[in-house]
């Protein structure tokens, strides 16, 4: 065997002219002939590359080779593999023939195997695989020629949402390697409605599909498509006119009727376009985590007025994606974001509308915070997320507060038990690199009697933000969004707004005398609630009040416009929130800001 291989390799060392004389064609001639593909996947972080091709006899080959291995050894292995098929055929032929037939005894020689660069030069056998297998090279195996495609665009995941509503955008989850969703080609199809009302074609071969107009990544089914399933055909592309093999996916169920008018429809009239380069449209929204909506307590006590199907995650996500997409925002700060919702729903949807997402999960929880920013307006400079309890325990920034809190062990224990987090992102303007902004996002402790806990949490938050916006990036403006679980009459709101909190403020005893903790606090920022103090941002059966805010640095930013909240009539159409026309128990805050 080795003698035959060495002989084959000696034949391979002949020049392209010699190959031509021997019946082979050099790569220059290959351009005129249709070539099969040899797909190479070579990633620097991995020790091996993979090679896939189909031999002339129709058998597929998938090889893994060390990237540092000399090309000659890989070619020898290909020659061996290529000889296996004919060898097996010869063996079968030998059994079929009479014993001693010369045709049956003939040995099968390994074919000549060679790799040529794009310009037709033979690639030396000592070149490492990683450098040898370049895009556009030609692999020759005997008479067969293969065009090498190195790291071609490929889809790794293509998925449609489980729930489809007429009038609501369908955003597929598209994951690709060596490709980007914005460069992929999308073709949408709907089922053809059979004349007889059945679900299949007359031949019984499954549904017939009709191409739907559009061809965009996001597709909005019309009312005429209610009762029909959808199909998506996606061809991955890399933006350099290279396209990989397409994949198709069909929806698991049909398009269903939408709810009609939603609470956010009138708000979208103010946000049809992205605001100009000198402005920032910011959104803060507690979207109601599925982990809290899908409990017996939620269905029977918190939201008994809400139709059960309207509490289902898939249904609410349809509404939420349409709502958020329609705000044309530059910054979106979300609270109560389930990790799976972020990965499988929000990222694919908002990415399609030009937004990049960041996530910070709460310790011991399945939900957390998400910040999205518009890619063509901002780039991410740095992230500075913290968990309040961990930062309070270990960060030298909070030593003074930590020492004060140590005098109140009951309160200290409660603070350290909380899983609340702070998400901080420093963004840089894409058009004016001198403009940077510190975007903070949080969700403070929820308990009505937890005012003292919230004061400690916000003190940690503002101290941390001060370190970033004053020390690390001196004098950059702050936008601080979140569900602060604090009404305008609370100590937390007063502290943020005024910069100080007295040690005798009533919130220090909000949990009772045994958990009293008195300490004066201050911070250096001049912060303003950009959306003012609405009558409510949270409206449920047993409570309504203003808990959510977008605080801005009033020395550097000013409010251009505040998008009006839904009317009281819209909010209470179905008694309270959430409802069939509103996906959360909170209402999004939206404002347009501009640099001073």
TrEMBL record:
Family: Belongs to the CCR4/nocturin family.
Chain intervals for the UniProt region annotation (Disordered): 82-104
GO BP terms in the entry: mRNA processing; nuclear-transcribed mRNA catabolic process, deadenylation-dependent decay
InterPro entries in alphabetical order: CCR4/nocturin_mRNA_transcr, Endo/exonu/phosph_ase_sf, Endo/exonuclease/phosphatase, PDE12-like_N
Domain Endonuclease/exonuclease/phosphatase: 284-586
Name listed for the protein in its UniProt record: 2',5'-phosphodiesterase 12
Cofactor(s) this protein cannot do without: Mg(2+)
Alphabetized GO MF terms: metal ion binding; poly(A)-specific ribonuclease activity
UniProt entry keywords in alphabetical sequence: Exonuclease, Hydrolase, Magnesium, Metal-binding, Mitochondrion, mRNA processing, Nuclease, Phosphoprotein, Transit peptide
Major localisation: mitochondrion
Organism: Rissa tridactyla (Black-legged kittiwake)
Compartments it resides in: Mitochondrion matrix
Domain 2',5'-phosphodiesterase 12-like N-terminal as annotated: residue spans: 152-256
GO cellular component: mitochondrial matrix
């Amino acid at each position: 065997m080795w003698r035959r291989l060495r002989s084959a390799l000696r034949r391979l060392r002949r020049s392209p002219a010699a190959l031509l004389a021997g019946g082979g064609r050099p790569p220059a001639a290959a351009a005129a002939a249709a070539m099969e593909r040899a797909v190479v996947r070579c990633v620097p972080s991995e020790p091996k590359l993979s090679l896939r091709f189909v031999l002339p006899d129709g058998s597929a080959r998938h090889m893994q080779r060390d990237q540092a291995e000399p090309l000659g050894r890989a070619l020898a292995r290909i020659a061996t593999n290529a000889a296996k098929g004919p060898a097996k055929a010869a063996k079968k032929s030998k059994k079929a023939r009479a014993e001693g037939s010369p045709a049956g005894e003939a040995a099968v020689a390994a074919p000549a195997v060679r790799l040529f660069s794009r310009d037709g030069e033979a690639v030396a056998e000592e070149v490492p695989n990683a450098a040898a297998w370049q895009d556009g090279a030609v692999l020759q195996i005997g008479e067969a020629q293969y065009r090498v495609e190195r790291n071609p665009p490929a889809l790794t995941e293509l998925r449609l949402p489980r729930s489809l509503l007429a009038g609501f955008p369908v955003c597929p989850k598209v994951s690709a390697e060596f490709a980007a969703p914005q460069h992929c080609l999308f073709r949408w199809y709907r089922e053809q409605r059979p004349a007889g009302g059945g679900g299949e074609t007359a031949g019984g071969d499954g549904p017939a599909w009709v191409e739907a107009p559009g061809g965009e990544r996001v597709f909005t089914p019309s009312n005429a498509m209610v009762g029909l399933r959808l199909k998506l055909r996606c061809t991955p592309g890399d933006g350099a006119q290279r396209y990989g093999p397409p994949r198709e996916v069909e929806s698991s169920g049909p398009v269903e009727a939408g709810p009609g008018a939603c609470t956010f429809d009138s708000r979208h009239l103010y946000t049809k376009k992205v605001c100009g380069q000198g402005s920032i449209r910011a959104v803060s929204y507690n979207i109601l985590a599925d982990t809290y909506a899908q409990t017996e307590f939620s269905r029977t006590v918190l939201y008994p007025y809400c139709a059960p199907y309207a509490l289902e995650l898939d249904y609410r996500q349809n509404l939420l994606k349409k709502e958020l997409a329609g705000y044309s925002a530059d910054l979106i700060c979300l609270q109560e974001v389930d990790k799976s919702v972020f990965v499988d729903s929000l990222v694919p949807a908002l990415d399609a509308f030009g937004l990049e997402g960041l996530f910070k999960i709460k310790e011991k929880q399945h939900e957390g915070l998400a910040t999205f920013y518009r890619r063509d307006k901002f780039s991410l400079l740095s992230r500075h997320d913290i968990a309040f309890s961990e930062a309070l325990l270990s960060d030298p920034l909070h030593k003074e507060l930590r020492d004060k809190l140590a005098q109140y062990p009951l309160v200290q224990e409660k603070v350290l038990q909380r899983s609340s987090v702070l998400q901080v992102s420093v963004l840089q303007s894409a058009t004016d690199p001198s403009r940077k902004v510190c975007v903070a996002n949080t969700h403070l402790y929820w308990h009505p009697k937890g005012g003292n806990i919230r004061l400690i949490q916000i003190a940690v938050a503002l101290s941390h933000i001060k370190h970033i916006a004053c020390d690390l990036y001196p004098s950059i403006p702050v936008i601080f969004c979140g569900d602060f679980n604090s009404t305008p009459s609370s100590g937390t709101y007063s502290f943020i707004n005024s910069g100080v909190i007295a040690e005798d403020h009533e919130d220090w005893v909000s949990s009772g005398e045994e958990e009293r903790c008195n300490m004066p606090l201050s911070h250096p920022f001049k912060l303003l609630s950009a959306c003012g103090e609405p009558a409510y941002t949270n409206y449920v059966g047993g409570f309504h009040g203003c808990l959510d805010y977008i605080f801005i640095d009033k020395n550097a930013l000013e409010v251009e416009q505040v998008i009006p909240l839904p009317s009281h009539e819209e909010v209470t159409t179905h008694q309270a929130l959430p409802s069939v026309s509103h996906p959360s128990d909170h209402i999004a805050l939206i404002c347009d800001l501009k640099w001073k």
